[in-house]
Amino acid sequence: MTKRALKPIPKRLKIGPLTYTVTEVNDMSNVMPGQMAMGCVDFINVTIRLYSKMSLEKKWAVLMHEIVHAIDENITLELSEDVTDRLAIGLMDALTTNKIGLL
């Protein structure tokens, strides 16, 4: 069985009542000073930023993480960063293994 390629990262995503703009940027240094962030959600400007120099597979994984943050913000789950990571990994695995949406 051949492995199918992932779809390109979408430019817009509807998450809850909001439509987020997804952008890829070369510099994430202003997100978390002293740390290298790979992605972030800007809830005020309704934007998700991803570090552009990652592989497509890594971009999808980081995007899934940021989507979980956006869902958390919408319905006030108050998830920890660890739980957000775990949910994102589980969702990414389920979607790719079952060829749902990302392929």
In summary, what is this structure?
The chain has 103 residues and is an alpha+beta fold. The chain is built from two helices and four strands, in the order E-E-E-E-H-H.
List keywords for this structure.
about 100 residues, alpha+beta, Zincin-like, about 20% strand, globular
Can you walk through the features of this model?
This protein is α+β, with helices and mostly antiparallel strands and 103 residues long. It has one domain: Zincin-like (2-Layer Sandwich), CATH 3.30.2010. The chain is built from two helices and four strands; from the N terminus they run ββββαα. It has helices at 56-75, 81-97, and strands at 12-15, 18-25, 39-42, 47-51. The chain has a four-stranded mixed beta sheet with strand order 1-2-4-3, with helices on one face. α1 (56-75) crosses α2 (81-97).
